[in-house]
Amino acid sequence: MTFQRLELLSKETNWFTNPPQVRLNVRAKEPVTPQQANVGIKQRRLSPAN
Fold first, then answer.
1. Which residues pair with 40 in a beta bridge?
2. Of 1, 5, 30, 44, which has the maximum CB count within 10 A?
3. CA distance 13 to 36
4. Cα–Cα dist 28/47, whole Å
5. What are the residues whose beta carbons fall under 8 Å from the beta carbon of 31, sequence distance 6 or more?
6. Nearest Cα to Cα of residue 30 among 5, 10, 9, 8
7. Neighbour-count burial for 6-42, b at 16+ CB within 10 Å, e otherwise
8. Domains of the chain: total
């Protein structure tokens, strides 16, 4: 799963939690399973910061 297949509609960040929580609201042309979303999130965590 790559973020290239998703359109980011909005994001919310809660800086008061540890670690901070981010909620992404996205749109996809094809269905995204929970497993694909979890894998994508884990991959982003492991990617170096831009």
1. none
2. 1
3. 22
4. 22
5. none
6. 5
7. beeeeeeeeeeeeeeeeeeeeeeeeeeeeeeeeebee
8. 1
Tokens of 39: 């894998």
* Structural domain span for residue 9: 3-46
Chain-centre distance of CA 9, in angstroms?
12
pTM higher than 0.85 for the full model? Answer: no
- Pairing between strand 6-14 and 21-28? antiparallel
Higher pLDDT, 31 or 43: 31
pLDDT by residue (tens digit) across 17-42? Answer: 998 888 888 888 888 887 777 765 65
